[in-house]
C-alpha cells in the first residue's frame, strides 16, 4: 500500500480543522458528526486547535485490473495549531511529513500565522498545496487571495518548483472542493486527488539500521506516555531493544513495549513487525554507534505510535 504523509497548516480560524473533519467523514473514517479533531476540552471551548494531532484515511477505493483486488492509499494527516502561541507544535510536525496543505480564507487572505507556517515549510523544501477555503463567504475574493498567496510565496523566497503550487478551492463546512471556481463539485475528491498526484509516496529503507525520530507525544491510561514519530530507516517490532539518543549526545537503552498505528482518529495496535514506529528531540537507533541526527527528507514507510520505553 502506498502512503502519503501531510500536514494541514493555516492561520487560526481559516477552516483547517473543519476541512480535516470533513475529509474524515467523507472517507468513512468517522461516522459520528460530533467527533472532531479538536477533541481537547479547552479546544472545544475556545474553538481553536491547540495541540497537533494525528489521523489517517484510506483513499480511493479503486480496482487493479491485473488482480482484481482493491487498491487504496493511506494518507497520514497531522492537524496543526493555527495560533502563533503554539507555533512550536507546527515546527516539530513539519520535519516529519512530505508536503503541506496550506489553507487560506478566501475573504481574509494570508494572515501573520499563514506567513509563519509557510516560511517554515519553504525552508524545509516542502512543496505546498494551497487550498483557498470559505469561497462561499459574501465578501470572498478568491482571485485576489490567490494573488496575495503568490506574492507571499515570492516574498519568502520560494523556488520555481514551490511557486508552481497547485490550487484547490473549497467550502470546508460543506465538504466541497473544486479545481476551478466554475466547476461543479459535490465532495472533497478534487482535493484528495490532488494530494495523491502532488505528494510523493513515502519511500522505504527497511534494510538499513533503525533510525526513528519522535515529533509528538500521546497518552494511554494503561501504558502511560506514548511517543509519536516517523521512521527514517530500518524496521521495528514489539520487544525490540533500542538506543535512545538525545541532541546533547546522551544515550540510554530501552525496549519497545507496544506499537500502534493511526486509523481515522483511533489508535490501532500493530501485531506484527513494522517499518516505522513510535517515541522528542530524541532519536531511536538500533546501534549505539549510529549518528543521532535524522534528516527530514529521508524516506520512511508509515507513521505509528509506540509506548514510552522500558529501561
* Largest sheet report: 8 strands, antiparallel
**Overall geometry:** globular
Strand % is 25-35%
Q: Report the C-alpha radius of gyration, rounded.
A: 19 Å
How would you characterize the overall build of this protein?
About 20% of the residues lie in helices and about 30% in strands. With about 300 residues, it is of the alpha+beta class. The protein has an eight-stranded antiparallel β-sheet with strand order 11-10-14-8-9-15-12-13, with helices on one face.
List keywords for this structure.
311 residues; 7 helices; disordered C terminus
List the SSEs and their pairings:
Blueprint lengths: L1 E9 L5 H11 L14 H6 L6 E11 L6 E10 L7 H8 L4 E7 L6 H12 L5 E5 L8 H14 L4 H4 L3 E5 L4 E3 L10 H10 L12 E10 L3 E10 L7 E5 L5 E5 L3 E5 L2 E4 L13 E3 L17 E5 L4
Parallel strand pairs: 1-3, 1-4, 4-5, 5-6
Antiparallel strand pairs: 2-3, 6-7, 8-9, 8-14, 9-15, 10-11, 10-14, 12-13, 12-15
